[in-house]
Specification:
This protein has 131 residues and is of the alpha+beta class. The chain is 32% helix and 21% strand. The chain contains 4 helices and 6 strands. The protein has a 6-stranded antiparallel beta sheet. Strand 2 and strand 3 form a beta hairpin. The longest helix has 17 residues.
Length: 131
């Protein structure tokens, strides 16, 4: 698993650090696309969402795309990982950021990004340096 640019790998994962990590991936962008939920931030790559969070919310949670089998395994192992809230529970997990090691959260974010990128056309994946 490769790291996003600028990831030092340690330290507490605050909302600010989570945002910086998400935006460190090639082609990543941040939006607040839901007028009825103005606090909800989405992180996208090529217009496809790979993470949802409300940065001001305590405890901080982030919803991430996940392979369905891995999603089930993670939920069994970590009480701080639950089915995606208001999302397709087969493909999304909601993660309590502060209740997990920062390195694990970063890995889950990167896995989510990689899953989304894997569904993009080959030329786009190559441009993002994720063949």
């Amino acid at each position: 698993m490769s790291r996003a640019p600028g990831d030092a790998g340690g330290g507490a994962l605050t909302a600010r650090a989570l945002r910086a990590f998400c935006l460190g991936f090639a082609g990543a962008a941040e939006e607040r696309p839901f007028p009825r939920a103005p606090d909800l931030v989405v992180f996208k790559v090529e217009g496809k969402i790979f993470a949802f969070c409300v940065p001001e919310q305590e405890p901080l949670t982030v919803s991430l795309k996940c392979d369905p089998e891995e999603a089930l395994r993670l939920r069994e192992v970590y009480p701080a990982i639950a089915p995606g809230r208001h999302l397709n529970k087969r493909h999304w997990n909601t993660v309590m950021v502060g209740a997990l090691p920062p390195r694990l959260v970063r890995e889950l974010v990167e896995d989510s990004y990689d899953l989304v990128v894997a569904g993009l056309p080959r030329a786009t994946r190559l441009r993002l340096d994720r063949p």
